[in-house]
Amino acid sequence: MVKLVGNNWDNILDEEYHKDYFKKIVAFINKEYKEKIIFPPKSKILRALALTDYDNVKVVILGQDPYHGVNEANGLAFAVSNGVRLPPSLQNIYKELESDLGIKTAKVGNLECWAKEGVLLLNAVLTVEKDKAASHKNIGWEQFTDAIIKKINEKKEPVVFILWGNFARSKKIYITNPNHYIIESTHPSPFSANHGFFGSKPFSKANNYLKSKNIKEINWEVY
Known about the structure:
Layout: H1 9-17, H2 20-35, E1 38-39, H3 47-51, E2 59-63, H4 88-101, H5 112-117, E3 119-123, E4 128-129, H6 141-153, E5 160-164, H7 165-169, E6 181-185, H8 202-212
Parallel strand pairs: 2-3, 2-5, 5-6
Antiparallel strand pairs: 1-4
């Protein structure tokens, strides 16, 4: 068995690892990392899966592709490495978190604490070239991350899917299991946050659903 993540995801995704499209992704990004500046660091490409094992997934938050600035991307959707200025979307996520649950805005943005609570922070595309947004779109990552969403959809245990923006909402077609709960709104980006993201209360809605299913709620505090 191929061990890329180091937990149960390797069992779940073993079939994907052996498909031609995935082998092409690996060959492509190995070449890219040698010749260009690619984010996140190679060791953190699958970090979202490494920090939130398949059996522990309670909430999925879908992003599009990694930040493309130096030191920003850390393998978790919407998150940035410590010491990096909080991007506008993350600032808006924190504003909504404070409005929704009264949790004060954090100074750090790595979101590892959420991942360890059972929040899978999954980008649809897992790598990007420096300063070139969406540069690794259509190299095959979407097929891989769609497979991840489908595998989570198969879980018997209820999972909350938080879909922000049209891109994330397009993944609804893979979430067919009635045990799961979908929360959707506009994207937290400054261009759309005022048109349905602010006031959408995704964090309390997620916890209320988990609580209704006798599942331990997420501690959304960022530290």
